[in-house]
Amino acid sequence: MAFGMDPEVTKYFKKILNSLFAFLIWMFINITGGIYFGLAFREHFPLIINILFYLWLALSLGLLLWYYFKIWGK
Fold it and tell me: Residue 24 sits in which domain range?
């Protein structure tokens, strides 16, 4: 036992931290692309760029949820 912590508590804590980190990275990437670079707004780019951005957003959300189910399903 490292530092008197139960191994199950350590495992659960790692799951929480991995989930939080994955969510924050996902949000950072999508907010940077959508708001900072203006990919979420129609006025800066052609419509196809906006469609591709929103497809990426939906696909990456699906991958994030799949990652969550994979981690928490164990």
Answer: 13-72
Asked if residue 34 lies in contact with residue 42, where contact means CB atoms within 8 angstroms, the answer is no
Identity of residue 65? L
pTM: 0.84
Instruction: Give residue-wise pLDDT tens across range 16-68.
Output: 999 999 999 999 999 999 999 999 998 888 999 999 999 999 999 999 999 99
Number of domains the chain contains: 1
Q: Is 42 exposed, middle or buried (0-12, 13-18, 19+ CB in 10 A)?
A: exposed
Q: Classify residue 5: in a domain, yes or no.
A: no
